[in-house]
Amino acid sequence: MNPSLTLATAGRVLHQLRRDRRTIALLLVVPCVLLGLVAWMFNATPQVIDRIGPVLVGFFPLLVMFIVTSVATLRERTGGTLERLMTMPIGKGDFVVGYAVAFAIVSLVQAVVVVAWAIWVGGMDVTGPLWLMFVVAVLNAVLGCALGLAASALARTEFQAVQMMPAFLLPQLLLCGFIMPRDQLPQVLEWLSRVLPLTYAVDAMQKIAVGGGWEQTRGAIGVLAAFIVGAVALGTTTLRRRTP
Amino acid sequence: MCRRARRFTIHHVGNSTVAPAISIKGLRVVRGKNLVIPGLDLQVPAGQVVGLLGPSGSGKTTLMRAIVGAQVVEGGSVEVLGRPAGTAELRRRVGYTTQAPSVYLDLSVAENLRYSAALLGVGEDRVQATLVDVGLAGFDKRLVGTLSGGELSRTSLAVALLGNPELLVLDEPTVGLDPVLRRDLWELFGRLRDAGTSLLVSSHVMEEAVRCDRLILMRAGGILADGTLAELLARTGAPDAEGAFLHLVDEANAAARGDAA
Protein backbone atom coordinates (compact mmCIF):
# COMPACT_ATOMS: atom_id res chain seq x y z
CA MET A 1 0.00 0.00 0.00
CA ASN A 2 1.00 3.56 -0.75
CA PRO A 3 -0.66 6.60 0.91
CA SER A 4 -0.59 8.70 -2.27
CA LEU A 5 -2.40 5.99 -4.26
CA THR A 6 -4.93 5.55 -1.43
CA LEU A 7 -5.60 9.28 -1.37
CA ALA A 8 -5.82 9.47 -5.17
CA THR A 9 -8.50 6.77 -5.02
CA ALA A 10 -10.36 8.54 -2.20
CA GLY A 11 -10.23 11.80 -4.18
CA ARG A 12 -11.55 10.08 -7.27
CA VAL A 13 -14.46 8.54 -5.32
CA LEU A 14 -15.30 11.95 -3.80
CA HIS A 15 -15.21 13.58 -7.25
CA GLN A 16 -17.70 10.97 -8.47
CA LEU A 17 -19.93 11.51 -5.45
CA ARG A 18 -19.88 15.29 -5.84
CA ARG A 19 -21.60 14.94 -9.23
CA ASP A 20 -24.26 12.64 -7.80
CA ARG A 21 -26.77 15.03 -6.22
CA ARG A 22 -29.34 12.33 -5.51
CA THR A 23 -26.92 10.27 -3.47
CA ILE A 24 -25.88 13.35 -1.53
CA ALA A 25 -29.56 13.95 -0.77
CA LEU A 26 -29.92 10.33 0.31
CA LEU A 27 -26.90 10.73 2.58
CA LEU A 28 -27.92 13.97 4.25
CA VAL A 29 -31.65 14.61 3.90
CA VAL A 30 -33.23 11.18 4.36
CA PRO A 31 -31.75 10.53 7.83
CA CYS A 32 -32.94 13.97 8.96
CA VAL A 33 -36.44 13.36 7.63
CA LEU A 34 -36.62 9.98 9.38
CA LEU A 35 -35.35 11.40 12.65
CA GLY A 36 -37.81 14.26 12.37
CA LEU A 37 -40.59 11.74 11.84
CA VAL A 38 -39.60 9.80 14.97
CA ALA A 39 -39.44 13.01 17.01
CA TRP A 40 -42.88 14.00 15.78
CA MET A 41 -44.38 10.53 16.42
CA PHE A 42 -43.23 10.61 20.02
CA ASN A 43 -43.94 14.28 20.53
CA ALA A 44 -45.83 13.50 23.75
CA THR A 45 -43.02 11.34 25.20
CA PRO A 46 -39.75 13.19 24.49
CA GLN A 47 -37.63 10.55 26.25
CA VAL A 48 -38.22 8.19 23.27
CA ILE A 49 -36.12 10.33 20.91
CA ASP A 50 -33.34 10.21 23.49
CA ARG A 51 -33.42 6.41 23.22
CA ILE A 52 -33.99 6.02 19.45
CA GLY A 53 -32.00 9.04 18.23
CA PRO A 54 -28.51 7.76 19.14
CA VAL A 55 -29.30 4.33 17.65
CA LEU A 56 -30.34 5.88 14.35
CA VAL A 57 -27.32 8.19 14.32
CA GLY A 58 -25.21 5.04 14.56
CA PHE A 59 -27.23 2.97 12.12
CA PHE A 60 -27.60 5.46 9.22
CA PRO A 61 -23.93 5.61 8.23
CA LEU A 62 -23.68 1.80 8.33
CA LEU A 63 -26.81 1.40 6.19
CA VAL A 64 -26.15 4.14 3.67
CA MET A 65 -22.43 3.44 3.19
CA PHE A 66 -23.17 -0.27 2.78
CA ILE A 67 -25.60 0.43 -0.06
CA VAL A 68 -23.53 3.12 -1.75
CA THR A 69 -20.28 1.13 -1.62
CA SER A 70 -21.79 -2.18 -2.68
CA VAL A 71 -23.38 -0.59 -5.74
CA ALA A 72 -20.32 1.55 -6.58
CA THR A 73 -17.85 -1.34 -6.37
CA LEU A 74 -20.19 -3.68 -8.21
CA ARG A 75 -20.26 -1.11 -11.01
CA GLU A 76 -16.45 -1.21 -11.02
CA ARG A 77 -16.43 -4.99 -11.13
CA THR A 78 -18.92 -5.26 -14.01
CA GLY A 79 -17.88 -2.16 -15.96
CA GLY A 80 -14.26 -3.15 -16.56
CA THR A 81 -12.74 -0.31 -14.52
CA LEU A 82 -11.70 -2.70 -11.74
CA GLU A 83 -10.24 -5.16 -14.23
CA ARG A 84 -8.02 -2.46 -15.68
CA LEU A 85 -7.15 -1.02 -12.24
CA MET A 86 -5.95 -4.46 -11.20
CA THR A 87 -3.53 -4.46 -14.15
CA MET A 88 -2.15 -1.07 -13.03
CA PRO A 89 0.29 -0.25 -10.23
CA ILE A 90 -2.28 0.11 -7.43
CA GLY A 91 -2.48 -2.15 -4.38
CA LYS A 92 -5.72 -3.88 -3.47
CA GLY A 93 -5.46 -2.22 -0.06
CA ASP A 94 -5.19 1.20 -1.74
CA PHE A 95 -8.48 0.54 -3.49
CA VAL A 96 -10.37 -0.65 -0.38
CA VAL A 97 -8.94 1.93 2.01
CA GLY A 98 -9.39 4.65 -0.63
CA TYR A 99 -13.10 3.92 -0.71
CA ALA A 100 -13.22 3.76 3.10
CA VAL A 101 -11.43 7.11 3.49
CA ALA A 102 -13.77 8.81 1.01
CA PHE A 103 -16.88 7.54 2.74
CA ALA A 104 -15.47 8.23 6.20
CA ILE A 105 -15.17 11.89 5.20
CA VAL A 106 -18.72 11.88 3.83
CA SER A 107 -20.04 10.16 6.93
CA LEU A 108 -18.39 12.73 9.18
CA VAL A 109 -20.39 15.43 7.38
CA GLN A 110 -23.45 13.22 7.64
CA ALA A 111 -22.95 12.64 11.37
CA VAL A 112 -22.53 16.35 12.07
CA VAL A 113 -25.68 17.24 10.12
CA VAL A 114 -27.77 14.41 11.56
CA VAL A 115 -26.66 14.91 15.18
CA ALA A 116 -27.18 18.66 14.95
CA TRP A 117 -30.63 18.08 13.52
CA ALA A 118 -31.52 15.50 16.18
CA ILE A 119 -30.44 17.80 18.98
CA TRP A 120 -31.81 21.15 17.83
CA VAL A 121 -34.84 20.13 15.86
CA GLY A 122 -35.69 16.70 17.27
CA GLY A 123 -34.97 17.66 20.86
CA MET A 124 -32.56 14.76 21.51
CA ASP A 125 -30.55 15.06 24.72
CA VAL A 126 -26.92 13.98 24.63
CA THR A 127 -25.14 14.21 27.97
CA GLY A 128 -21.87 12.61 26.86
CA PRO A 129 -19.26 14.19 24.55
CA LEU A 130 -20.50 14.89 21.04
CA TRP A 131 -17.12 14.28 19.39
CA LEU A 132 -17.25 10.69 20.61
CA MET A 133 -20.61 10.28 18.93
CA PHE A 134 -19.03 11.49 15.67
CA VAL A 135 -16.18 9.02 16.11
CA VAL A 136 -18.61 6.10 16.44
CA ALA A 137 -20.63 7.32 13.44
CA VAL A 138 -17.50 7.49 11.27
CA LEU A 139 -16.37 4.04 12.42
CA ASN A 140 -19.79 2.69 11.45
CA ALA A 141 -19.49 4.27 8.02
CA VAL A 142 -16.10 2.65 7.44
CA LEU A 143 -17.52 -0.68 8.58
CA GLY A 144 -20.51 -0.32 6.23
CA CYS A 145 -18.15 0.56 3.42
CA ALA A 146 -15.94 -2.52 3.90
CA LEU A 147 -18.95 -4.83 4.31
CA GLY A 148 -20.55 -3.35 1.18
CA LEU A 149 -17.38 -3.98 -0.76
CA ALA A 150 -17.31 -7.62 0.35
CA ALA A 151 -21.02 -8.03 -0.40
CA SER A 152 -20.53 -6.69 -3.93
CA ALA A 153 -18.41 -9.78 -4.67
CA LEU A 154 -21.50 -11.94 -4.09
CA ALA A 155 -23.76 -9.95 -6.41
CA ARG A 156 -23.96 -9.96 -10.20
CA THR A 157 -26.23 -6.95 -10.67
CA GLU A 158 -26.85 -3.68 -8.86
CA PHE A 159 -30.32 -4.98 -8.02
CA GLN A 160 -28.81 -7.99 -6.27
CA ALA A 161 -26.32 -5.75 -4.47
CA VAL A 162 -29.13 -3.71 -2.95
CA GLN A 163 -30.89 -6.94 -1.97
CA MET A 164 -27.84 -7.93 0.10
CA MET A 165 -28.67 -5.10 2.47
CA PRO A 166 -31.55 -6.78 4.39
CA ALA A 167 -29.52 -9.98 4.66
CA PHE A 168 -26.45 -8.23 6.08
CA LEU A 169 -27.99 -5.45 8.14
CA LEU A 170 -31.53 -6.23 9.32
CA PRO A 171 -30.53 -9.08 11.65
CA GLN A 172 -28.04 -6.69 13.23
CA LEU A 173 -30.71 -4.04 13.74
CA LEU A 174 -33.10 -6.58 15.29
CA LEU A 175 -30.56 -7.97 17.74
CA CYS A 176 -28.51 -4.87 18.62
CA GLY A 177 -30.63 -4.02 21.67
CA PHE A 178 -32.63 -1.34 19.95
CA ILE A 179 -35.92 -3.26 19.63
CA MET A 180 -35.53 -5.33 22.78
CA PRO A 181 -32.86 -4.87 25.46
CA ARG A 182 -30.22 -7.54 24.86
CA ASP A 183 -30.41 -8.94 28.40
CA GLN A 184 -34.04 -9.89 27.72
CA LEU A 185 -33.20 -11.82 24.53
CA PRO A 186 -33.21 -15.65 24.53
CA GLN A 187 -29.74 -16.86 25.47
CA VAL A 188 -28.74 -18.02 21.98
CA LEU A 189 -29.80 -14.73 20.39
CA GLU A 190 -27.95 -12.83 23.08
CA TRP A 191 -24.77 -14.75 22.16
CA LEU A 192 -25.46 -14.09 18.50
CA SER A 193 -25.85 -10.37 19.17
CA ARG A 194 -22.32 -10.33 20.60
CA VAL A 195 -20.75 -11.29 17.28
CA LEU A 196 -22.59 -8.58 15.33
CA PRO A 197 -20.77 -5.25 15.05
CA LEU A 198 -23.85 -3.00 15.21
CA THR A 199 -24.43 -4.21 18.80
CA TYR A 200 -21.23 -2.47 19.88
CA ALA A 201 -21.96 0.68 17.92
CA VAL A 202 -25.40 0.99 19.50
CA ASP A 203 -24.01 0.17 22.92
CA ALA A 204 -21.48 2.99 22.59
CA MET A 205 -24.05 5.45 21.25
CA GLN A 206 -26.51 4.70 24.08
CA LYS A 207 -23.81 5.14 26.69
CA ILE A 208 -22.73 8.47 25.21
CA ALA A 209 -26.35 9.66 25.19
CA VAL A 210 -26.71 9.07 28.93
CA GLY A 211 -23.42 10.72 29.80
CA GLY A 212 -20.78 8.07 29.17
CA GLY A 213 -17.34 9.19 27.97
CA TRP A 214 -14.26 7.46 26.58
CA GLU A 215 -13.85 5.37 29.76
CA GLN A 216 -17.30 3.82 29.39
CA THR A 217 -17.21 3.31 25.63
CA ARG A 218 -13.63 2.38 24.78
CA GLY A 219 -14.39 -1.34 25.06
CA ALA A 220 -17.23 -1.16 22.53
CA ILE A 221 -15.22 1.16 20.27
CA GLY A 222 -12.27 -1.24 20.41
CA VAL A 223 -14.48 -4.14 19.32
CA LEU A 224 -15.91 -1.99 16.53
CA ALA A 225 -12.39 -1.16 15.35
CA ALA A 226 -11.53 -4.87 15.33
CA PHE A 227 -14.61 -5.57 13.19
CA ILE A 228 -13.46 -2.85 10.78
CA VAL A 229 -10.02 -4.43 10.42
CA GLY A 230 -11.71 -7.78 9.73
CA ALA A 231 -14.17 -6.28 7.24
CA VAL A 232 -11.44 -4.42 5.35
CA ALA A 233 -9.42 -7.65 5.18
CA LEU A 234 -12.51 -9.48 3.93
CA GLY A 235 -13.21 -6.75 1.37
CA THR A 236 -9.60 -6.90 0.18
CA THR A 237 -9.66 -10.68 -0.30
CA THR A 238 -12.72 -10.35 -2.57
CA LEU A 239 -10.60 -8.29 -4.97
CA ARG A 240 -8.71 -10.47 -7.39
CA ARG A 241 -6.09 -9.45 -9.90
CA ARG A 242 -7.10 -12.50 -11.90
CA THR A 243 -10.75 -13.40 -12.42
CA PRO A 244 -12.21 -16.55 -14.05
CA MET B 1 7.39 -2.67 -52.61
CA CYS B 2 9.15 -0.41 -50.21
CA ARG B 3 6.64 -1.11 -47.40
CA ARG B 4 6.94 -4.80 -47.96
CA ALA B 5 10.71 -4.71 -47.79
CA ARG B 6 10.61 -2.72 -44.57
CA ARG B 7 8.14 -5.14 -43.06
CA PHE B 8 10.32 -8.03 -43.95
CA THR B 9 13.27 -6.38 -42.21
CA ILE B 10 11.33 -5.69 -39.04
CA HIS B 11 9.99 -9.20 -39.09
CA HIS B 12 13.48 -10.55 -39.43
CA VAL B 13 14.85 -8.41 -36.62
CA GLY B 14 11.87 -9.28 -34.45
CA ASN B 15 12.40 -12.99 -34.79
CA SER B 16 16.14 -13.34 -34.72
CA THR B 17 17.81 -10.75 -32.51
CA VAL B 18 15.21 -8.99 -30.36
CA ALA B 19 13.47 -10.91 -27.55
CA PRO B 20 9.75 -11.38 -28.24
CA ALA B 21 7.30 -9.04 -26.48
CA ILE B 22 5.07 -11.97 -25.58
CA SER B 23 5.93 -15.64 -25.40
CA ILE B 24 3.21 -18.19 -24.66
CA LYS B 25 3.61 -21.95 -24.23
CA GLY B 26 0.80 -24.45 -23.74
CA LEU B 27 -1.75 -21.91 -22.47
CA ARG B 28 -4.98 -23.51 -21.25
CA VAL B 29 -7.95 -21.44 -20.07
CA VAL B 30 -11.29 -22.69 -18.77
CA ARG B 31 -14.11 -20.19 -18.29
CA GLY B 32 -17.13 -21.60 -16.49
CA LYS B 33 -17.41 -25.11 -17.93
CA ASN B 34 -15.98 -24.18 -21.32
CA LEU B 35 -12.46 -24.92 -22.42
CA VAL B 36 -11.91 -21.55 -24.10
CA ILE B 37 -8.23 -22.00 -24.94
CA PRO B 38 -7.25 -25.68 -25.12
CA GLY B 39 -3.47 -25.27 -25.49
CA LEU B 40 -1.92 -22.35 -27.28
CA ASP B 41 1.65 -21.50 -28.27
CA LEU B 42 2.46 -18.03 -29.55
CA GLN B 43 5.35 -15.61 -29.98
CA VAL B 44 4.53 -11.94 -30.47
CA PRO B 45 7.55 -10.00 -31.75
CA ALA B 46 8.57 -6.72 -30.15
CA GLY B 47 8.38 -3.37 -31.94
CA GLN B 48 5.51 -4.26 -34.28
CA VAL B 49 1.79 -3.65 -34.61
CA VAL B 50 0.44 -7.18 -34.36
CA GLY B 51 -3.22 -7.70 -35.22
CA LEU B 52 -5.19 -10.36 -33.38
CA LEU B 53 -8.04 -11.16 -35.72
CA GLY B 54 -10.89 -13.60 -35.52
CA PRO B 55 -14.63 -13.84 -35.14
CA SER B 56 -16.21 -12.95 -31.81
CA GLY B 57 -16.03 -15.93 -29.47
CA SER B 58 -12.70 -17.10 -30.89
CA GLY B 59 -10.85 -16.38 -27.62
CA LYS B 60 -9.19 -13.05 -28.44
CA THR B 61 -10.33 -11.32 -25.25
CA THR B 62 -9.42 -14.33 -23.09
CA LEU B 63 -5.95 -14.45 -24.64
CA MET B 64 -5.44 -10.71 -24.02
CA ARG B 65 -6.67 -11.05 -20.43
CA ALA B 66 -4.14 -13.84 -19.91
CA ILE B 67 -1.38 -11.59 -21.31
CA VAL B 68 -2.18 -8.69 -18.95
CA GLY B 69 -2.57 -11.07 -15.99
CA ALA B 70 -6.32 -10.56 -15.51
CA GLN B 71 -7.32 -14.11 -16.42
CA VAL B 72 -7.21 -17.19 -14.22
CA VAL B 73 -5.34 -19.75 -16.32
CA GLU B 74 -5.43 -23.56 -16.02
CA GLY B 75 -1.96 -24.20 -17.30
CA GLY B 76 0.93 -23.17 -19.51
CA SER B 77 3.24 -20.21 -19.30
CA VAL B 78 2.76 -16.62 -20.46
CA GLU B 79 5.85 -14.41 -20.52
CA VAL B 80 5.50 -10.70 -21.20
CA LEU B 81 8.60 -8.54 -21.77
CA GLY B 82 10.65 -11.37 -20.31
CA ARG B 83 8.64 -11.63 -17.07
CA PRO B 84 5.75 -13.92 -16.10
CA ALA B 85 2.42 -12.25 -17.02
CA GLY B 86 0.82 -10.39 -14.14
CA THR B 87 4.11 -9.63 -12.36
CA ALA B 88 3.90 -6.39 -10.34
CA GLU B 89 6.68 -4.78 -12.37
CA LEU B 90 4.73 -5.29 -15.61
CA ARG B 91 1.84 -3.16 -14.35
CA ARG B 92 3.86 -0.08 -15.32
CA ARG B 93 5.26 -1.51 -18.54
CA VAL B 94 2.03 -2.78 -20.10
CA GLY B 95 -0.98 -0.63 -21.11
CA TYR B 96 -4.36 -2.33 -21.50
CA THR B 97 -7.80 -1.41 -22.72
CA THR B 98 -10.77 -3.71 -22.19
CA GLN B 99 -13.42 -4.11 -24.86
CA ALA B 100 -15.98 -2.04 -22.92
CA PRO B 101 -14.48 1.41 -22.24
CA SER B 102 -13.11 1.03 -18.73
CA VAL B 103 -13.46 4.65 -17.60
CA TYR B 104 -15.64 6.35 -15.01
CA LEU B 105 -18.74 7.80 -16.68
CA ASP B 106 -19.41 10.19 -13.80
CA LEU B 107 -16.00 11.86 -14.05
CA SER B 108 -14.74 14.33 -16.64
CA VAL B 109 -12.18 13.24 -19.24
CA ALA B 110 -9.37 15.03 -17.38
CA GLU B 111 -10.44 13.64 -13.97
CA ASN B 112 -10.33 10.11 -15.39
CA LEU B 113 -6.87 10.65 -16.82
CA ARG B 114 -5.55 12.41 -13.71
CA TYR B 115 -6.60 9.51 -11.49
CA SER B 116 -4.74 7.03 -13.69
CA ALA B 117 -1.80 9.45 -13.97
CA ALA B 118 -1.61 9.52 -10.16
CA LEU B 119 -1.52 5.70 -10.06
CA LEU B 120 1.20 5.57 -12.73
CA GLY B 121 3.16 8.45 -11.20
CA VAL B 122 3.12 10.64 -14.32
CA GLY B 123 2.32 14.34 -14.46
CA GLU B 124 -0.15 16.74 -16.06
CA ASP B 125 2.11 17.06 -19.12
CA ARG B 126 1.44 13.40 -19.97
CA VAL B 127 -2.30 13.92 -19.47
CA GLN B 128 -2.34 16.78 -21.99
CA ALA B 129 0.01 15.06 -24.45
CA THR B 130 -2.09 11.88 -24.40
CA LEU B 131 -5.29 13.83 -25.02
CA VAL B 132 -3.66 15.31 -28.11
CA ASP B 133 -2.49 11.84 -29.23
CA VAL B 134 -5.99 10.38 -29.18
CA GLY B 135 -7.59 13.49 -30.70
CA LEU B 136 -9.39 14.60 -27.56
CA ALA B 137 -7.55 17.90 -26.96
CA GLY B 138 -9.99 20.39 -25.46
CA PHE B 139 -12.24 17.65 -24.07
CA ASP B 140 -10.77 18.01 -20.53
CA LYS B 141 -13.93 19.18 -18.83
CA ARG B 142 -16.43 17.02 -20.71
CA LEU B 143 -18.23 14.48 -18.56
CA VAL B 144 -17.33 11.03 -19.90
CA GLY B 145 -20.97 9.91 -19.67
CA THR B 146 -21.93 12.52 -22.27
CA LEU B 147 -19.33 11.44 -24.86
CA SER B 148 -20.08 9.52 -28.04
CA GLY B 149 -19.03 5.87 -28.34
CA GLY B 150 -15.89 6.75 -30.26
CA GLU B 151 -14.85 9.48 -27.82
CA LEU B 152 -15.49 7.07 -24.97
CA SER B 153 -13.21 4.38 -26.38
CA ARG B 154 -10.52 6.97 -27.11
CA THR B 155 -10.70 8.17 -23.49
CA SER B 156 -10.14 4.58 -22.42
CA LEU B 157 -7.25 4.30 -24.89
CA ALA B 158 -5.74 7.50 -23.48
CA VAL B 159 -5.59 5.89 -20.02
CA ALA B 160 -3.61 2.98 -21.49
CA LEU B 161 -1.17 5.36 -23.21
CA LEU B 162 -0.55 7.60 -20.17
CA GLY B 163 2.40 5.73 -18.72
CA ASN B 164 4.29 5.39 -22.05
CA PRO B 165 4.10 1.58 -21.79
CA GLU B 166 6.50 -0.69 -23.68
CA LEU B 167 3.63 -2.98 -24.66
CA LEU B 168 0.06 -2.00 -25.48
CA VAL B 169 -2.66 -4.65 -25.36
CA LEU B 170 -5.78 -3.16 -26.95
CA ASP B 171 -9.02 -5.13 -27.13
CA GLU B 172 -11.05 -3.91 -30.14
CA PRO B 173 -10.03 -0.24 -29.83
CA THR B 174 -11.54 0.72 -33.21
CA VAL B 175 -14.94 -0.93 -32.85
CA GLY B 176 -17.81 1.43 -33.68
CA LEU B 177 -15.54 4.23 -34.96
CA ASP B 178 -16.12 6.04 -38.24
CA PRO B 179 -13.58 5.38 -41.03
CA VAL B 180 -11.72 8.65 -40.47
CA LEU B 181 -11.20 8.02 -36.76
CA ARG B 182 -10.22 4.42 -37.47
CA ARG B 183 -7.57 5.57 -39.90
CA ASP B 184 -6.33 8.16 -37.38
CA LEU B 185 -6.04 5.54 -34.66
CA TRP B 186 -4.15 3.08 -36.87
CA GLU B 187 -1.79 5.93 -37.79
CA LEU B 188 -1.31 6.60 -34.08
CA PHE B 189 -0.52 2.91 -33.53
CA GLY B 190 2.04 3.17 -36.34
CA ARG B 191 3.68 6.21 -34.72
CA LEU B 192 3.82 4.42 -31.37
CA ARG B 193 5.45 1.43 -33.08
CA ASP B 194 7.99 3.72 -34.75
CA ALA B 195 8.78 5.11 -31.29
CA GLY B 196 9.56 1.58 -30.12
CA THR B 197 6.27 0.41 -28.57
CA SER B 198 5.03 -3.13 -29.16
CA LEU B 199 1.30 -3.37 -29.87
CA LEU B 200 -1.16 -6.24 -29.82
CA VAL B 201 -4.47 -5.02 -31.22
CA SER B 202 -7.55 -7.19 -31.58
CA SER B 203 -10.30 -6.72 -34.12
CA HIS B 204 -13.07 -8.75 -35.64
CA VAL B 205 -12.97 -6.60 -38.78
CA MET B 206 -10.75 -8.41 -41.26
CA GLU B 207 -10.11 -5.27 -43.37
CA GLU B 208 -7.99 -3.91 -40.55
CA ALA B 209 -5.42 -6.61 -41.40
CA VAL B 210 -3.76 -4.27 -43.91
CA ARG B 211 -2.87 -1.93 -41.05
CA CYS B 212 -0.86 -4.52 -39.13
CA ASP B 213 2.80 -5.48 -39.47
CA ARG B 214 1.88 -9.03 -38.57
CA LEU B 215 -1.33 -11.01 -38.13
CA ILE B 216 -2.51 -13.68 -35.76
CA LEU B 217 -5.72 -15.34 -36.89
CA MET B 218 -7.67 -17.02 -34.11
CA ARG B 219 -10.52 -19.47 -34.21
CA ALA B 220 -12.04 -21.65 -31.48
CA GLY B 221 -9.33 -20.78 -28.96
CA GLY B 222 -6.46 -21.72 -31.26
CA ILE B 223 -4.11 -20.00 -33.67
CA LEU B 224 -5.18 -20.55 -37.26
CA ALA B 225 -2.32 -18.60 -38.79
CA ASP B 226 0.52 -16.34 -37.72
CA GLY B 227 2.54 -14.26 -40.19
CA THR B 228 2.55 -11.14 -42.32
CA LEU B 229 -0.44 -10.42 -44.54
CA ALA B 230 1.74 -10.97 -47.61
CA GLU B 231 2.79 -14.40 -46.36
CA LEU B 232 -0.81 -15.34 -45.60
CA LEU B 233 -2.05 -14.26 -49.02
CA ALA B 234 0.81 -16.06 -50.77
CA ARG B 235 0.15 -19.25 -48.82
CA THR B 236 -3.63 -19.30 -49.37
CA GLY B 237 -3.84 -17.62 -52.77
CA ALA B 238 -6.69 -15.49 -51.38
CA PRO B 239 -7.17 -11.83 -52.43
CA ASP B 240 -7.59 -10.45 -48.90
CA ALA B 241 -7.43 -11.31 -45.20
CA GLU B 242 -11.04 -12.45 -45.06
CA GLY B 243 -10.49 -14.78 -48.01
CA ALA B 244 -7.33 -16.13 -46.37
CA PHE B 245 -9.22 -16.70 -43.11
CA LEU B 246 -12.02 -18.60 -44.87
CA HIS B 247 -9.51 -20.67 -46.82
CA LEU B 248 -7.67 -21.61 -43.61
CA VAL B 249 -10.93 -22.49 -41.82
CA ASP B 250 -11.96 -24.76 -44.72
CA GLU B 251 -8.51 -26.31 -44.71
CA ALA B 252 -8.64 -26.93 -40.94
CA ASN B 253 -12.15 -28.42 -41.18
CA ALA B 254 -11.08 -30.69 -44.02
CA ALA B 255 -8.06 -31.81 -42.01
CA ALA B 256 -10.30 -32.51 -38.99
CA ARG B 257 -12.64 -34.60 -41.15
CA GLY B 258 -9.64 -36.41 -42.54
CA ASP B 259 -8.44 -37.18 -39.01
CA ALA B 260 -11.85 -38.45 -37.99
CA ALA B 261 -12.10 -40.73 -41.04
Describe this protein's structure.
The complex is a heterodimer of chains A (244) and B (261). Chain A is globular. Chain A is mostly helical and 244 residues long. The longest helix of chain A is centred in the N-terminal third of the chain and has 33 residues, at 47-79. Chain A contains ten helices and no strands. Helix content of chain A is 78%, strand content 0%. Chain A has one domain (3-167, 228-237). The mean pLDDT of chain A is 88. Chain B has a single domain (2-103, 168-260), classed as P-loop containing nucleotide triphosphate hydrolases (Rossmann fold), CATH 3.40.50. Chain B is 41% helix and 23% strand. Chain B contains nine helices and ten strands. Chain B has helices at 2-16, 60-68, 90-93, 109-120, 124-133, 149-161, 179-194, 229-236, 241-260; strands spanning 22-31, 34-44, 49-53, 75-80, 83-84, 94-97, 167-170, 198-203, 214-219, 222-227. Chain B has a six-stranded mixed sheet, with helices on both faces. In chain B, helix 5 packs across helix 6 and helix 8 crosses helix 9. The N and C termini of chain B lie far apart (44 Å). In chain B, 44% of the residues are buried. The A-B interface holds A 4-5, 8-9, 11-12, 15-16, 19-20, 79-81, 83-90, 241-244 and B 31-32, 65, 68-73, 86, 88, 91-92, 94, 96-104, 106-107, 111, 115-116, 118-121, 143, 159.
Strand and helix layout:
The complex is a heterodimer of chains A (244) and B (261).
Chain A: H1 3-18, H2 21-41, H3 47-79, H4 81-85, H5 92-120, H6 130-152, H7 158-175, H8 187-194, H9 197-209, H10 214-237
Helix pairs in contact in A: 1-5, 2-3, 2-5, 3-5, 3-6, 3-7, 3-9, 5-6, 5-10, 6-7, 6-9, 6-10, 9-10
Chain B: H1 2-16, E1 22-31, E2 34-44, E3 49-53, H2 60-68, E4 75-80, E5 83-84, H3 90-93, E6 94-97, H4 109-120, H5 124-133, H6 149-161, E7 167-170, H7 179-194, E8 198-203, E9 214-219, E10 222-227, H8 229-236, H9 241-260
Parallel strand pairs in B: 3-8, 3-9, 6-7, 7-8
Antiparallel strand pairs in B: 1-2, 1-4, 4-5, 9-10
Helix pairs in contact in B: 5-6, 8-9
